[in-house]
Specification:
This protein has 473 residues and is of the alpha+beta class. It has 13 helices and 19 strands. The chain has 3 domains: 168 residues, D-Amino Acid Oxidase, Chain A, domain 2; 237 residues, FAD/NAD(P)-binding domain; 32 residues, no CATH class. The strands form 3 sheets. Strands 4, 5, 6, 12, 13, 14, 15, 16 and 17 form a 9-stranded mixed beta sheet that branches. Strands 1, 2, 8, 9, 10, 11, 18 and 19 form an 8-stranded mixed beta sheet that branches.
């Protein structure tokens, strides 16, 4: 395996010397000011807990359907401060965390899942155009690459599987792959020209929030919800200084502990880390190519993802997915200097022609990981509450789909979405502590070992496969 966790050169460490420890997307002077916190009791038709993509899309779609609907959004921190502003900005048509995952779990529904996923991405693109949202959306596609010989056959199998469902993926040899993005590690590739867009995720969050405020949706930041309970006419969402009495509630709480205890065993927060470089020179861009402008992901179990930005930088993330005992989350976990050094080393292993490039920004964030890698849904309190979680790092586009499902569930209507087994079923729960932490650690070790042993999965991974459990960064 070309990548390493232990061999860190001095030059790689030097590339991190001038880091800003903040998400690149959020580090800009035109970041919107926060809205006031909720400080008094109020009422609404719909209260949405969580001001990330799930919550914002829910509010937008709900007010599209009923412009007179009274909606309140409660965000614990600031809009885009959580996962919605800390990701790589890959917006995929897939709602199943990739074709392979969907094919393995719901083969009989895969054509319909693909159709609905493409329709969802098309609808996002149309919404951006219709509302004039300034979000740097580019329908560039994505390139999956092999960095090891044994991965070449797996990419060919992926392209064959796609063809069975009428999907068009282009299988490229080493030369064809390197003509798109030039790395000495790239031995083959599969190009999806239409199924992925790149976006500035913070801008998308802020623009959705702007439109919602213009529609009269009340957004309260710095308003963490401390409890959710029934009321005679619906539900009450309580914050430290206020409350919202509403007919219904939609929960988009991502990796944070759900307000519904029954949901918590299905989610673990896994920390993912990202670097963004300084702007490249024209000569540096010429050395790496990247003419197609899209995102790239490698085929390792613990993989890297990378993309260019509109202002000429390279974003580089992934590889290590870190779980902390007891599902702990906190600001102190959003920085990991050891992981940044590993990422830098692996970046220059991938692109040695960029040796000497510096990184400007580094950050981390928690992913709402579930055992089937794709979102799941449910209701509570006699159908007055709906939730959507478990996106496992692929929520930038899928959250809009998740919002549609929640609104279907709250309305009690049967739709093409609620008919799907993916929507009607849930993943396997994770074991409780003290078993959870060693199980995750063993899984990470096994995935790393498989990457170093030509993809061969040990008994532990094969057992997880049979049980329908998994772990992904």
């Amino acid at each position: 395996m070309p990548y390493s966790r232990t061999r860190i050169r001095t030059s790689s460490r030097a590339s991190l010397r001038d880091l800003v420890h903040a998400p690149y997307w959020l580090d800009r002077p035109d970041r919107p000011d926060p809205t006031p916190a909720l400080v008094a009791p109020t009422s609404a038709d719909l209260v949405i807990v969580g001001g990330g993509f799930t919550g914002l899309w829910t509010a937008l779609l709900a007010t599209d359907a009923d412009p007179g609907l009274d909606v309140v959004v409660l965000e614990a921190d600031r809009i885009a401060e959580g996962a919605s502003g800390r990701n790589g900005g890959f917006m995929a048509a897939s709602i199943t965390h990739g074709l392979g995952n969907g094919h393995g779990r719901w083969p009989s529904e895969m054509r319909e899942l693909l159709r609905q996923g493409h329709a969802n991405l098309d609808a996002i693109e149309a919404t951006v155009a219709e509302l004039g949202l300034d979000v740097d959306l580019d329908r560039t596609g994505e390139l999956d690459v092999a960095t090891e010989d044994h991965q070449v056959a797996a990419l060919a199998e992926l392209a064959d599987t796609a063809a069975q469902y009428g999907e068009k993926l282009e299988l490229l040899d080493a030369a064809g792959t390197r003509a798109l993005v030039d790395s000495p590690l790239y031995r083959a590739g599969v190009l999806d020209r239409d199924g992925v867009a790149l976006v500035d995720p913070a801008k998308l969050s802020w623009e959705l929030a702007r439109v919602l405020r213009e529609r009269g949706v009340r957004i309260h930041e710095h308003s963490p919800v401390t409890g959710l309970e029934r009321s005679p006419s619906g539900v009450i969402a309580r914050t430290e200084h206020g409350s919202v009495h509403a007919r219904q509630a939609a929960l988009g709480t991502s990796a944070f502990p759900s307000l519904l205890r029954r949901v918590r065993p299905f989610i673990i927060p896994v920390y993912d880390y990202v670097l963004v470089s300084e702007p490249l020179t024209a000569a540096q861009w010429a050395s790496v190519g990247w003419g197609f402008g899209g995102g790239v992901g490698d085929s390792n179990n613990q993989f890297h993802y990378t993309r260019p930005t509109r202002d000429g930088r390279i974003l580089w993330g992934g590889f290590e997915a870190i779980y902390h005992y007891g599902s702990r989350m906190g600001r102190d976990l959003e920085r990991d200097d050891r992981t940044y050094a590993v990422l830098a080393e692996n970046f220059f292993t991938t692109f040695p022609q960029l040796e000497g490039l510096r990184f400007s920004h580094a950050w981390g964030g928690a992913i709402d990981t579930c055992s089937r890698f794709s979102a799941f849904w449910g209701t509570a309190m006699d159908g007055r509450v709906a939730y959507s979680v478990g996106y496992t790092g692929l929520g930038v586009g899928t959250t809009r789909y998740g919002a549609m499902v929640m609104l279907d569930l709250l309305a009690g209507r049967a739709t093409e979405r609620t008919a799907l087994a993916m929507v009607r079923t849930k993943p396997m729960p994770f074991p409780p502590e003290p078993l959870r932490s060693p199980a995750v650690a063993l899984t990470r070790w096994s995935l790393d070992r498989a990457d170093n042993r030509e993809g061969r999965r040990n008994l532990w991974l094969r057992t997880l496969d049979r049980l329908g459990l998994g772990f992904d960064s």
